[in-house]
Amino acid sequence: MTKIELYDTTLRDGAQGEGVNFSLEDKIAIARRLDDMGFDFVEGGFPGSNPKDAEFFQRLAKEPLKHSKACAFGMTRRKGVKPADDPGLQSLVASEAPVITIVGKTSDFHVAEVLRVSEQENLDMIAETIAYFVSIGREVIYDCEHFFDGWKSNPAYAAKTIQAAADAGAMRIVMCDTNGGSLPEEIAQLTKEAAAAVAVPLGIHTHNDSELAIANTLAAVDAGAIQVQGTINGLGERCGNADLISAAANLALKKTGYQVLDPERIARLAELSGYVYEIGNLLRRNNQPFVGPSAFAHKGGMHVAAVNRVAHSYEHIPPESVGNERRVLVSELSGRSNIIATTTKMGLAEDKDLMARVLEEVVNRENRGYQYEAAEASFALLVRRLAGTFTPHFDLEKYHVTSENRGGAHAHEGPLTEATVKLLVAGEVEHRVAEGDGPINALDGALRKALKDHYPNLAKMSLVDYKVRVINSEAATAASVRVVIESRDADGQTWGTVGVDENVIQASWEALCDSIEYKLCKDEA
Amino acid sequence: MTKIELYDTTLRDGAQGEGVNFSLEDKIAIARRLDDMGFDFVEGGFPGSNPKDAEFFQRLAKEPLKHSKACAFGMTRRKGVKPADDPGLQSLVASEAPVITIVGKTSDFHVAEVLRVSEQENLDMIAETIAYFVSIGREVIYDCEHFFDGWKSNPAYAAKTIQAAADAGAMRIVMCDTNGGSLPEEIAQLTKEAAAAVAVPLGIHTHNDSELAIANTLAAVDAGAIQVQGTINGLGERCGNADLISAAANLALKKTGYQVLDPERIARLAELSGYVYEIGNLLRRNNQPFVGPSAFAHKGGMHVAAVNRVAHSYEHIPPESVGNERRVLVSELSGRSNIIATTTKMGLAEDKDLMARVLEEVVNRENRGYQYEAAEASFALLVRRLAGTFTPHFDLEKYHVTSENRGGAHAHEGPLTEATVKLLVAGEVEHRVAEGDGPINALDGALRKALKDHYPNLAKMSLVDYKVRVINSEAATAASVRVVIESRDADGQTWGTVGVDENVIQASWEALCDSIEYKLCKDEA
């Protein structure tokens, strides 16, 4: 078995995708999830290009990843500058990332036309940059931009660039099909040639412009590459990068002789895929291979019994091997295994009848747009409600929100917003009013005012993230929305809650109330 | 040059995709478009399975396709029944389709476990069905279900099934990777073995379950298959069929030695892709290879600078060769060069002073959370405002939104929401009120009421997508939100607008107003 390393660049190359925009907290959350999933390398960003990425690495320096090696991305030094004097390289030093990934030019054409330096200067830029980071104790991965185009046009020069990287101490040399235009047979051939030219282990980095990113990745691995770079869900510029979900699933389940993630983690790929879509507030691709909701959906009058009898006739792999499910039985996202895992954690798995009711309710709610992947607190409350062990800490009598924009010269200042909340709390009526920056903020303010005398601990809890997602977007402004709120306690613990409604105010109210109820239940436990 | 036939099954296998539902008129329209595009075969449906497909062939019988051969799909005869007595086969006869495509079993396992007939009976079913249609003057294409799995498990029996089809007079034998689980190296090897077993030309029919449909198609062609089956945009059950757009583009533009559609028609692939999405009312996949709106979109600042200098560095083919176009995204990661490229396209690059003001304003707005990459209409309005060439079509006097949840038993029904809008339009005061499913829907309704008498064309425009994104999510419910709205005109043209505010109502109002202003400016131009 050959160990194949997975190198995730969702947070850097994936963030180049159209419509992809991760906040700092999003990036931290995804990095920790990838760490937990056992990815070998997690590329967190390009600290020289923006303060958000620089801050990301500061956060990781304080609390490092447990398993994955964090990688900071940057370019070779500028022409005619010493590494120690290059601000881009110094931002990589400042990142404290244990692995530095350096991209450099392979193609003589790009050296002359894009970089506009001599061929020798490019070789020096590669060698000196890598040697510099090695000298200060970092591991260096060298990404060869336009590797295949470069090798095809001038193999001798391309070989010199990777030789320079190898001699300077790069731990991996990664062949990038930068514009996504190569064919599998070319990838296979040139990977063999590269392997013959240098002793450093090779990696492969492909893009999907020809709809061949996965085939190209597999072709390179078959030809000797031992590292696969890609992104979760194939996010990335233009047509995206190789989807690490499909790459890992193919290597683990379809090809033989390769070791990637262990089977328990391969079985969590669907969950990982959904998590990244949710965190990034991105539209899921329903027919995504392996993990899409349609990937094991059977249509067209096929008997469920027939599918059950010879399941492998209609399914190239058992859906549960990647954490997916046959659509006819259970909803796609939460899935039976997640529900069992969660209720087991809550000590409720023995109660088969409760389990069945939880499963049914989750399916019902998912059909209405709920998702519990990022809302484990709402899920816990749902289970308690169904188990009959939940007593609400307050009841709603009424809320009322008004928002008025007085127009004219003030039209662009935004509206004045006020919310009133009337609750029944421990037998007392609490009727409070608050202004806010928007309807949800005003509601949150009034709700907290109504509860603070009864539950002073709520002051320790803060809302750290608020996300809104349109579900059936074709209904435009009449569409249902899903609101996901993330809250944090004074001790740093965070939890997510969810609400769904056609009205963003009501959906937010639901998620706000769940967040507060979860905190109050937690404090009692 | 080897001629490779394109066999489109969008209207049959594609229609099995989740959410795909073509009306009779849709099917006719797509068939005629495929005919016009020069596809060799157009599979129109399964007339034995439903009246719509039967009617489709009656319509084509009255007015046949000009270039493409229409194919009707069906199964081998039932066991123990003569072809002339089989109702399914007789519906194929009645279709009057010049080509009959028959699917049959290749795998001994499926013969025994699914079909539940003897191995000899299966061979007879294949042979007699094909011979029957040949005897009445039809051409027959034989689709081998589970070809690769069947051949792997029992090559001798699989070979007998295709020999039976060949002897009975099939014009093509099509190897189907029915569950989408095969790898390119397996496809290549078994295609060679099949070619050695029969003299009839081979076809390939793949599914994308392993994200290898295109690679598998190309592998089969390289190994000798001369017909490619697939669907436009890869529509189809589970993860979809091979996308004929990608297959044709790769064969025509990337591989050598194959002749498919002529270059003028390859240059209309983007148009064809969009047409099928529109007719089917399906969500476009933005990062679709070759033809997606993101396929030649450049976001990273470094790349954009280089693209303008040497376009082919970051584009594997010229976008216009498939009828697509280069797009430069205005985004936080990009910087100056992207904005210059966009304003150049608008014909404003000469005005250096305006350019500087646009750049400054975009930077300011991006710092406040605006993003223009999916909001090109808001960007165009921004440029016009700065250029002094924009005159608003209405002015806001006031809007007022209220939302009330009366609690108690009704707490979970959600609030009642009402919006009033008071505008100054062409010197008249318009003051209207609407209820809605939520605050934005109510505002949209009142705004349209206030404008409809002045601008009746607005009735032709609809909102097709509404997205909300929290920007500085660490401020939780006081965070700014970015709203992006996508609108569509009666002619199918779409445009995006953006609004940012701490109040989701105000942000939505801004995006709504930009959308309407853009439509009104567009109609005047």
UniProtKB/TrEMBL annotation, chains A, B:
Q: Which family does it belong to?
A: Belongs to the alpha-IPM synthase/homocitrate synthase family.
GO MF annotation list: (R)-citramalate synthase activity; 2-isopropylmalate synthase activity
Q: Which residues form the Pyruvate carboxyltransferase domain?
A: 4-270
- Say which enzyme class the record assigns: transferase
Entry-linked CDD domains: DRE_TIM_LeuA3
Supply the EC number(s).
Answer: 2.3.3.21
Its protein name is Citramalate synthase
Key words, A-Z: Acyltransferase, Amino-acid biosynthesis, Branched-chain amino acid biosynthesis, Isoleucine biosynthesis, Transferase
The alphabetized list of GO BP terms reads:
isoleucine biosynthetic process; L-leucine biosynthetic process
* Species this protein is from: Botrimarina colliarenosi
Reaction catalysed? pyruvate + acetyl-CoA + H2O = (3R)-citramalate + CoA + H(+)
InterPro entries given for it? 2-isopropylmalate_synth_dimer, AIPM/Hcit_synth_CS, Aldolase_TIM, Citramal_synthase, LeuA/HCS_post-cat, LeuA_allosteric_dom_sf, PYR_CT
Which pathway is recorded for this entry?
A: Amino-acid biosynthesis; L-isoleucine biosynthesis; 2-oxobutanoate from pyruvate: step 1/3
